[in-house]
Amino acid sequence: MPFDLPNDIGTLLETWLGQPRSPDFWWQIGVLLLAAAGALLVHRALSQSLDQQSEGSLENPLRRLTLKSLQRLLFPISMLLGVLAGRALLVSMEQQVELLNLAVPLLTSLASIRIAVYFLRKTFQPGPAVKAWEGLISTSAWIIVALHLLGWLPTVLEALDAIALQVGTVRISLLETIKLVLAVALTWILALWLARMIELRLSRTDYVNPGMQVALVKLSKFALLTLASLLALEAAGIDLTALAVFGGALGVGLGFGLQRIASNFISGFIVLFDRSIRPGDVITIGDKFGWVQELRARYIVVRDRDGVERLIPNETLITNEVINWSYTDCNVRLKIPVSISYNNDPEQAMALLQQAVIGVPRVLADPAPAARLLAFGDNGIELELRIWINDPQQGLMGVRSDVYVQIWRLFKAAGIVIPFPQRDLHLLGPWPGKPQDGSTDTPHVGTERDQQDLSL
Question: Is the domain of 408 the same as that of 300?
């Protein structure tokens, strides 16, 4: 029979159902209870110490991860060691150990699932997808353990290998496909975890600027994922020489359909290495103004003043003009235009403009604010107040508004008038309605010169 019970389970069932139960069975139960009690004591004794050490290792993410992993493995590993020691003792006493033989793979699987789930949570952001993967990993692991204990695993593997697709000389079986998926998943999770550790390590260094940190993280992630993919293909038994043909096809695809994607990808590395744009910079691209939140492989994330996050392709940063308000110096000059009436004194108004910025937050005293007379306009005298700030990442409109409010107060107190456009209307035809006094006189239409001047 292909699905007969293995000797360990068969013997265990015979011992369990036997009346009265044999001493061998109770010896094994005692070993399991002692191993579980010892594991609980070890977990309670060391868990608090490991937790304190991990909290004190915030600056060393790798050591913190090691301590947290050890804390999760304390119970299953301690119990496994106790079971192994008890099994060795019972074997030396020529006792049966079928129950302990079943406990060993179960405890090993429990430890493996715990460490796999922990690595998964440390690699990806929490969410429904991570929970789904946790359930899939746990279910798959326990199914494999159950098949192994029942002795059905070789038969199931043979059945999966028999389901195959023949393409020329290439045979692709369901078993090989599952192996490839598992190998890619495991190697990619390990690669992403290593990249995450590198990112955490770089984020705590002072000698590497933010732009270079992002560049190193992207390069390390790209290299690790490439290496993980090659290792997964090798582990799945796929000939790597066949990738040469795939590489040629990929080159043709890059020349046509993937050209823009490749351009954005390469442009992203150019932006990172020349450090022209870094996280936290304040930039203007066309009519878009905002703060750089993230630098990705294909785009950057820019958050504007309305809280809207714009995804701008990296190629745009290379081919278009970009204003970086905080590239080398955070000092930024703002120009605030103001008009006054011709009946007012411009020198007095310019003095009030310089006085208006006193006490306004964010306005720098050095360089000092300056007021300038720009032109004699159609409606009034055009002035301009020029001020400096050193925190453009906080926005520009807020400080403009504060200065305008102060200007309004000072001008109003000094009797300075802010002009507005005025127009005179001259009717060049008969009055459209009858006058209220009953007269039939038409309104004055102006002289010929007036008509020439005002007819537009």
Answer: no
